[in-house]
Amino acid sequence: MTNIKKIKDIPLSLNGVLLATLALSGIITYLLDKVDPNSEAIRWSIVGFLLVTLFLATFYVILISTKIIGFPNQTKKDFLNPKLSGLIGIFLIALNSFGNVVCNLINHLNLANQTALYLCILPVSISLLALILQIVYTLCFFIKIVTKHRLFKKETEAYGSFLIPFVGFGIGGCYCVNFHFLIPVLIYQIVWLFAIVSFFSFGIYSMFKIVIKGNQDKNLLTSQAIVASPTNVVGSAFLICFNPDNTKYLTNPLFFKIFSSILLTIGIITIIFYFVVWYRLSKNQVNKLTLASFGFPLAIFINHLLLFNFTFIYPEAKLFVLFIILLVLEIALTLFLIGIVIYLNYIHIRYINHLFKDNKDALENNYTINKYKVINN
């Protein structure tokens, strides 16, 4: 088998690793910027960290793009499988995030405003393309999966991957500030409104089914962690693109504060369930690669909590103690996330290495449990 054909067997879980890695870079950058935004040492540390992140992310993007484009029949097969269809959408979210990380790097190079603006055109174009593809993908998902799967029938299962197309396209609102507003905030606000309607129409119902009913297939246990993503995606995007400091459209300070609090409350409830899924893992055996489902949900919750903490708690002097408590919690969760992301990258790079070396014994012994194949096919 040629190396190109081996790319067909790259597991879809690599999408989750890519997205978690990019999300972690955003969290670390945000925290370091808050330490001292004028420190040259911190700025260059951020630049170095983002370069390493982008090097690894570019490698993943090339592999996944080749798999999706080079093997259309397999891509179609994965998309039409209700258990896997949402996982393809993770790549589009990651592609959107990729453009954001590139812009983040450019913004930390201290270039002239006009130069930075021109350099951001390409990554913003990548993110815009990803956003358009996300919308098309979501429409196809509704037509091919939701309508045929009969989601609202009592006996029909909902899968963690369902939650990705329902709100994934709303994540672009998190990045509009880094994009130098090359894409008007109003565009992201409109997209977010569609995302929140989709979330309340289908997302919450799917989350309820997953939490209450669970999945009959225990190999899908890890995908239940994705329940923590939707609310925190729309919550994070809302805190950016509806912030009165960033836009004059569709914003009201009181509503902004109240609705942000509601979304964070729901987000906290979902992250509790996320850790319940961790507990359930102690009683079940799962494929190691499927642990990729645990990266992004925690990352987007940390991002959501950070944004809320610095937007509403930090400015209030009387809430300083609460701010510190939340900040310590955020840092602790970030350290936990770093461990998860490092482990996920390690096992996936190791898997890819075994795959290209035709080391079938290593693949079978290290990644397959109870004779269940990797989540890819």
From TrEMBL:
Membrane topology of this protein? Multi-pass membrane protein
Under the cellular component aspect of Gene Ontology, which terms does the record hold? membrane
Keyword field contains Transmembrane helix: yes
Listed A to Z, the keywords are: Membrane, Transmembrane, Transmembrane helix
Q: Which residues cross the membrane?
A: 12-32, 44-63, 84-109, 115-146, 158-181, 187-208, 220-242, 254-277, 289-314, 320-347
Per the UniProt record, one Pfam family is SLAC1
Subcellular location, record wording: Membrane
InterPro entries associated with the record = SLAC1/Mae1/Ssu1/TehA (IPR004695), Voltage-dep_anion_channel_sf (IPR038665)
Q: Name one GO biological process term.
A: transmembrane transport
Keyword Membrane applies: yes
Name the record gives this protein: Uncharacterized protein
Which species does this protein come from? [Mycoplasma] anseris
Taxonomic lineage is: Bacteria, Bacillati, Mycoplasmatota, Mycoplasmoidales, Metamycoplasmataceae
